[in-house]
Amino acid sequence: MNTEHASPAGLAILRAAFDVDDHGASALGLPAVRAYEAEHGVVLPEPYRTFVAEMTDGSYAGPPDFGLLALAELPGDWGDGRPARRLDLPFPLTEAWLWEDEDDDPRSEEEVDALLDRVFDHGSIVLGTDGCGMNWHLVVTGPHRGHVWNISGEGATPFGAEFGFTTGSAGFAGWVEHWAANKPWFDAP
């Protein structure tokens, strides 16, 4: 997965899935993307960066179920009172974590709560929601930069065949391609 350069094949997948042409009428444009990146202290991973700059910034047609959010948006059910989102701080996970099932976690409740805040609010943008607080994030900072994660009230799971939950390819283009093929998100045997 190359997060520094958008591949022609990856961009073709995105154009086909969202039925966008090269004119990008609803795209942000590179100056707006650069301004967003400067404001948040990040460089968006490819091919998402090219996607929002040249194709479209959000779409009512998924993925996910309720559509792809614009770059600066959050789902309507995100909630008030959350800590400030810090995209420049690293996303803290590199493997799935189902915190709802962990009764034997050696960390204190305060440590777990602090880690949960970082999972939800550090190093990722929210791509959209499948409802009921089940949101898809694109990691923009940290070891999993460029990976898509499903984060809900019960746990966090990375998307990509190498993680064992799906047959789809990792990264934004792989996530979109999986959706466009009308496959269930978690389709690994």
Please give a quick description of this structure:
This protein is α+β, with helices and mostly antiparallel strands.
State the major sheet.
4 strands, antiparallel
Helix amount? 25-40%
**Overall mean pLDDT score?**
90
Structural class: alpha+beta
Number of domains: 1
- Strand % is 5-15%
Question: Which overall shape is indicated by the principal axes computed on the Cα atoms?
Answer: globular
Side by side, the strands of the main sheet go 1-2-3-4
List the uncertain runs.
Answer: none
Rg: 16 Å
SS summary, helix count: 5
Rounded to the nearest angstrom, the distance between the terminal CA atoms is 23 Å
Number of strands: 4
List SSEs in N-to-C order: HHHHEEEEH
Q: Can you give a write-up of this model?
A:
By secondary structure, the chain is an alpha+beta fold. It has five helices and four strands. The chain has a four-stranded antiparallel beta sheet with strand order 1-2-3-4, with helices on one face. A hairpin with a 5-residue loop joins strand 1 (124-129) and strand 2 (135-139). Helix 1 packs across helix 5 and helix 2 crosses helix 3. This is SMI1/KNR4 family protein.
List keywords for this structure.
about 190 residues, alpha+beta, four-stranded antiparallel beta sheet, about 30% helix, about 10% strand, globular, SMI1/KNR4 family protein, Knr4/Smi1-like_dom, Knr4/Smi1-like_sf
